[in-house]
Write the structure tokens for this entry.
Amino acid sequence: MKKRLTRVLSCALALLFVVMPLSSCAGSSPLKIVKDGESAYRIVYENGNREAGNAAEYLAAELEELTEVELEVTDDRTEADKKIPEILVGRTNRGTDYQLQRTLRYGSYTIAREKKNVYILGAGDGMLTQACEDFLTDVLDESYKVRGKGVLLTAEGNYAVSTVTLNGRAITDYTVYLPEHSKLNWDQYLGYVEDQLAAVSGFMLTTVTYTDVAEVSGPAIVLQSDDSLGSGEYKIKAQGQDTLYLSADSQEAVMAMAMAFITRLSDKKAEAMELKLEDGGGRAGENPLMPMTEGTDLRVMTFNIYATPDHKSLMPFVSASMYAYAPDFVCLQECSTKSVFDVVGDDMAQAGYGIAGATFTEVSPTALENAATDDHYQRFAHLGANSCTPILYRTDRWESVEQGSYLFYWKNRYHMTNTKSLSYGVFKNKTTQELVLIISTHFPLMTSSYVGKGDAYMMYSGTDNVLGAAWRNGATQEILKEVDAMRAKYPGILTVVGGDMNAKSTEDSMKTMENHAVLSDAIVMAPDGMISSGASYHDYGKAPSATVLPIDHLFVSEDVASVLRHLIVADPLTVQGSDHCPVIVDIARK
């Protein structure tokens, strides 16, 4: 068996951090990272780990700034060479002591020395970069040498959970086994489970690769592809007391199984976590968290994912939350095009989703109407990339007929930072040939302290409640103009408008939407007992207020459709990914 101590499963906000020394350390002669303007070292990071790659590049840049020496930076697909000592960032395939990895906790890091190599291990958002910073200031001395052996520096997190078990055994007893060669990206499965479990746990589970499944020894979680399974299927099979085999036939099935694992999490506030996996299985697209309401024709979600570069590490929570509820369509807000395609878009594409309205292909019809009197009517259309509001759709069920996207015009050309947009798409059901119109939107802020320049010739001041309300009224008029135009083109088409509208139902803009000839708020249309209450926004990681009205809405054309369920998703895992909750509606055609 070829072992690869790479990724780890984070699993429970847990015990106090205890660092164990490396078992095979060299003498304490200092390591000379840089000497006489040269270095024999290279920096190697964990392949496929964005954070490890960023931390490695940061370390190299800082070392070059300090020493004027450039170190090679590469991932661990580069073969090790005994003649080249390495600084290893993340859980690379170079190997460190098992116990060192098993005792590392989420929110902690360890810097250690083994022979001539330096290992920088971290678990949790930003921990690897922090470890690299502290390596430069607290480990590397003024002559650029590393002194000491074994564990050189640690940082500890604070944990509430003291015990974590899987099927009755301590989670740290298990090893995850990945096939050395597979058509499936099992690292992605680990990434989803790891990121989600990290919210409730800190224990680490070592992973290795295998070439022959017969060599696996328990306690073990064995991941394997299985072409004998049906399309999109996955299977969980227990063998004995301490070995679990998780099989899938496709990447879609891998992601569905990740969700099936995650749903077994207990309340993260419990003093002990007990995870359990039993024999069973499922299929991609069969919602493991909440089956569609009986009679549902389509499920639509709206989700402000706040996908800025600073939040890129949180996007797996967002992707997993969307996939877990298997919506037909997702109206997204606050996602730059790059963030969507690099992270969420790629994740959802592998789950079988397409993307529509991701770039601004048009100018607002309202802007065109003002072309004769406004010299700058089109200029603003090239700004506001972070206002991108694309639509995700299930390609197994739907195909795009037409799509577009543009920035709102009304007054926003003078207030660049707060310019918002809409995206639209007409989609055809592949089985019934029925059409649906989906509009995703983001309205201007409720309040803001923005002050500055939006462009060389444009000034803007803060957005107060009065001005913000006026902007949202303008955006509402543009939304309704688009709805009327598309329904004239496609008479009787089922229409859904979803987005972060930055307005409660009591505001005039929402009343205007509600008073439209066919649109009605889904929260009003849903039957008693199938309606969620409370806010749709929150502080990261915290449950939203149960008494505040939502500002994320879905409006549905009541002339041709009924709403069977309205749900604001605010479970402990979903709230890790954004400061907004996704909102879901199950819709039936009349």
